[in-house]
Amino acid sequence: MKTLFKKIFILIGLLFFCFAPAATAEQRIITGAQSKISLKMEPGYPKPHENVHFVLESFSTDLNMATVQWFVDGKPVKSGKALLEFDVTVGGLGSKTEVRAAVASTNIGSLPVTVTLQPAQVDLIWQSHSYTPAFYRGKAYLTQKSGALIVAMPSFITTSGVLLDPQDLIYTWTVDTVVKGDKSGRGKNTFRVDDVSIVRGDKMLQVLVKAPSTALAASQTIIVAMEMPILAFYEHDPLEGIKYNRALKGTYKLVNEEVTIEAVPYFFSTPYKETAELSYGWNLNGKAIETQETKHGAVTLRQTGESGYATLNLNVHHVRNPLEAVFGKLVLEFGGTNNIAFPSAP
Hints:
single chain; disordered N terminus; 1 helix; mainly beta; 346 residues; five-stranded antiparallel sheet; Immunoglobulin-like; elongated
């Protein structure tokens, strides 16, 4: 069913698709009072107007016996015995919120811990290098070996209202928990993914963006998932060109004496359809068709004889990437003749 829906969207040319965001929020731990107490916050890098959950922890004393008072921007908000959890909602871009926990009545004295929250945001957009025809209005899938360029777009505004230049920020890129140091650094807001495949599976990609000398920081995580190529058939009219507005599927009734059928292999890892990197294997009723035209993804058929049906099959694969392949079938209904022929090789 999933594949069917994908094909429908492809045919009407209105597919909008993005990498899936990761389901888990990142945590961050703030230490205080000579590291005898810590404040765990989730998410670790809040977005504008996001709720932040705090949990007090200590390996030096039993906090269940302590009295805790919570302050927001210097004002007492909540207090009580063993009040170890607290929530606060941060403001918009350019705002600042200070949260402080004052822990008393412990066997090692008072244990204060403070964190300053400055919300920021970073969005990840991407562009795959897989094939789509000209004027295609959707987004190209990331497929076997096609690769994609990921771009981080931060929104960092200081408390004085200054929008920071993305090239002045520090980017740390991580793939499957492994930091890519050679791809990280000041102004490095792009990252290329090349090694996603059926064998390697999905990848988790994260970027952490920080502004030097400020508390501004933001992170974003996405799952880089590989999709499969899709094969679609279209009629190629000698005057109008390829009729992308109507894909041929199931049974296609031939009206004219001669028809050219164009195969479009969406999302292969090549910038062109007519390339030596793609191999087109056509056959009609089990008989191979091989002409100069079929090598470029098209076949011209002519009706001869009485009415009937014929089955047109096509296998497309990438000659350098064996796992990158797709199969398509079209049943042809012809009338007034008893057969379908195809031009002989030149």
